[in-house]
Amino acid sequence: MDFDWAPATVHREGVKNYEQLFCYWTPEIGSNPAKVGLMSIPSKEIVRTLNLFSVSDVKLHWQSDASFLCVKVDRHSKSKKSQATSLEIFRVKEKGVPVEVVDTIKDTVVNFAWEPK
After folding, report:
1. Between 105 and 62, whose confidence is greater?
2. What is the rounded radius of gyration, in angstroms, for the C-alpha atoms of the chain?
3. Pairing with 117, which of 29, 31, 33, 39 sits 20 to 30 Å away (CA)?
4. pTM for the predicted model, two decimal places
């Protein structure tokens, strides 16, 4: 379990009140999937959630002006013998916060970083 604050105030499309955002993830417990979420503070509104299955680890990476959030998901096979990584890109400023998925990467991804401004 982990959380991370957005590095800047996000001006989301269709939202007049500019609030701070933070993202969090919770691990799989039993048959409940792992969850990644975006929450607006101080209203405590859940802006977006994403359910994930077969998760070993999750790392959260904000882009410098908080337009994007990359969630690096390390997944394991059902037998837990092999690992793969996927990148889930949240487009935070767009209405509904759409998520793009970078196809599964079979090689080990050690780190992810956004290009600086």
Report:
1. 62
2. 15
3. 39
4. 0.89
Neighbour tally for 10: CB within 10 Å: 22
Spatial separation of the C-alpha atoms in residues 93 and 59, rounded to whole Å: 20
Whose CA is closest to 92, among 5, 2, 3, 11? 11
Q: Is the pLDDT of residue 59 over 90?
A: yes
Q: How far apart are the first and last CA of the chain?
A: 29
How far, in Å, are 28, 56, 57, 107 from residue 79 at the CA level?
A: 16, 13, 16, 18
Asked whether the beta carbons of 106 and 86 are under 8 A apart, the reply is no
All structural domains of the chain with their residue ranges: 2-105
* pLDDT at residue 89, rounded to an integer: 96
